[in-house]
Amino acid sequence: MYSYTSLFPKKDRYSIGQKCEALTLEFLESLYEANSSRDPQRLILLEKLDNKLKIIKTMIRLCFDVKALDQNKYIRCEESLQEIGKMLGGWIKSTQKENLAI
C-alpha cells in the first residue's frame, strides 16, 4: 500500500492515502494480536479483523473512484485483499469449530 500511496496525487496522498496506510498498519497489528491470543478472544479479534478488511476494501475502491489509483494497481490490490479475505474466513471457521469442540 505504501508504494502505491506514494504515487497518489498530492491532494489525495495526505488524506485518503494516509488513511489507507493507517488502516493497513492497524490491520497488521490486529492480525498479530489475534495470532497470539487464546481461542475465545481470538474469534472476537478475527471478526474485528474481518470488519477492518471490509473498510480497507472500501477505501481502496474509493481511491480508484477518485482516480488516485489506476486500474492495474486497483486490480492487484483487490486480488490481494480477496486472497486475504479467503484466508481470514478460513481462520474464522477453524476457530469457530475449535470453540464448539471445547
Structure description:
The protein is 87% helix and 0% strand. With 102 residues, the chain is mostly helical. It has a single domain, classed as 23S rRNA-intervening sequence (de novo design (two linked rop proteins), Up-down Bundle), CATH 1.20.1440.60. The chain starts with a helix and ends with a helix. The model has no long low-confidence stretch (mean pLDDT 93).
Structural class: mainly alpha
> Main β-sheet: number of strands, strand sense, barrel status?
none
CATH homologous superfamily label = 23S rRNA-intervening sequence
User: What is the number of independent domains?
Assistant: 1
From the alpha carbons, calculate the radius of gyration and give it in angstroms.
15 Å
Low-confidence stretches: none
Measured as a percent range, the helix fraction is over 70%
Number of distinct beta strands: 0
Silhouette: elongated
Distance between the termini: 39 Å
User: What's the CATH C level?
Assistant: Mainly Alpha
| CATH-scheme architecture | Up-down Bundle
Element-level helix/strand string: HHHH
* DSSP strand content: under 5%
Q: What is the arithmetic mean of pLDDT?
A: 93
Output the number of helix runs. 4
CATH topology value: de novo design (two linked rop proteins)
Q: What's the structural blueprint in terms of helices and strands?
A:
Blueprint: H1 2-5, H2 10-36, H3 39-65, H4 71-101
Helix pairs in contact: 2-3, 3-4
Task: Please summarize what this structure is.
The protein has 102 residues and is an all-alpha fold.
